[in-house]
Amino acid sequence: MKEDTSAKKTDTEKLFHEFQNAWVELSDNDRESIFKMAEEYKKFLDAGKTERECVSEIVTMAKENGFKNIEDLIAIKKPLKEGMKIYA
Length: 88
Description:
- The protein has helices at 5-15, 22-25, 28-47, 51-64, 70-75, and strands at 68-69, 86-87.
- By secondary structure, the chain is mainly α.
């Protein structure tokens, strides 16, 4: 009686997975944006060596992107609405 080797081969293939290199699949634009993000992250790490410095850096970044301090809004009794850019 002849064995079905095709079924055994697929079972064996299931045990071994060949990993693809994702970097090879990326476009030049994707690589460029990855490097840009990495450089921004390195700058953030340089600026925030401690927890306090990190918080200060994050607050600065939030303000640059239009976020408002929730305590300032409460002080002037401005009502909070869904979708507002706030930080606490």
